[in-house]
Amino acid sequence: LEALRKGSFGAFYAYLGTVSSTQDVLKNWALDGAVEGSVVLAERQEKGRGRRGRAWASEPGHSLTFSVLLRPRLPLSSLPLLPLAAGLALCEACGVGGLKWPNDLLSPDGRKLAGVLLEAQVSGEEVAYVLLGIGLNVHRAAGLPPEAAALEEFGAVSRVLVLARLLERLEVCYARLEADSQGLLRDYRAKSHTLGHQIRVQTPQGEIRGLATDIAPDGSLVVERSGQTHRIGAGDVQLVGV
Ligand code: BTN
């Protein structure tokens, strides 16, 4: 990684065998004052977690399983754009597929290649740190479920090359949050696999169905149905009727 890395993300990293979750290891680093861009990478997680309390399984040697420490100097209101920046970085680094809002990377045929988990520590109006966790299927493991895809199905890949590129794109997209958030959103929309589709989304307020028409400047998903517009801040999107 040292030889391939560009920029400062990954300047400090640990490559570990088995951990509970790379998020937990990185949290301890954060509390010990680790610098932004520090990375914890592991082959195996005993308690890998996904979004919405789900478990996240990854096969040693086959996937990239890691977490990156961020110390955003952003207002709290910009925090919802962070998942989109991470998703865009993932899509740019892998060079394949599209994004299911907010930040799942899907293969061209709609199977999940990667997911992102963001855990933020907020105190008052300040974001103390964010643990940005990524799980990416690189090689096709025997146990990979049919609804998941691996990057190698779309061309030859090397895990360390993908990792180096991913860290570089994460650093660039993260910087754009401050410098060019509207440009970032434009690029995100262009990679969206959700916009223009009839979707069903589970929100804390219940299920909403409709046409996904836009990503609003605050990062929320705009869904229209029978002349009504809904803005969704968080939820699980599913395409309908495809
Ligand atoms: C999702 O799509 O639900 C998000 C999955 C995120 C998984 C990664 S793997 C590295 C990091 N450590 C974890 O325990 N989870 C994230």
UniProtKB/TrEMBL annotation:
**Superkingdom to which the source organism belongs:** Bacteria
Where, by residue number, does biotin bind?
45, 49-51
In short, the EC number is 6.3.4.15
Say yes or no: keyword Transport present: no
* GO molecular function terms attached to this record: biotin--[biotin carboxyl-carrier protein] ligase activity
Q: Which UniProt keywords apply?
A: ATP-binding, Biotin, DNA-binding, Ligase, Nucleotide-binding, Repressor, Transcription, Transcription regulation
Indicate yes or no for the key word DNA-binding. Answer: yes
* Catalysed transformations (reactions): biotin + L-lysyl-[protein] + ATP = N(6)-biotinyl-L-lysyl-[protein] + AMP + diphosphate + H(+)
Q: Which residues form a coiled coil?
A: none
Q: BPL/LPL catalytic domain location, by residue?
A: 2-188
Function as written in the Swiss-Prot or TrEMBL entry: Acts both as a biotin--[acetyl-CoA-carboxylase] ligase and a repressor.
Q: Which family does it belong to?
A: Belongs to the biotin--protein ligase family.
Q: What is this protein called?
A: Bifunctional ligase/repressor BirA
| Organism the protein comes from | Meiothermus hypogaeus
What gene does this protein come from?
birA
* Full-length numbering of the shown residues: 70 to 311 of 312
